[in-house]
Amino acid sequence: MDHSKVILDENGTKIIKDKHGRTYFSITGNESVVILARKDDDFVFIKQWRKPFGSFIVQLPGGGVEQGESLEEAAKREFLEETGFKCDKIHYLGELLVAPWRTNEITHVFYTDEFEEQFNQQLEAHETIEVYKINVEECLKKIDENIINDSEISFAILQSLIKGFVSK
Question: How far apart are CA 134 and CA 59, in angstroms?
Answer without folding.
Answer: 12
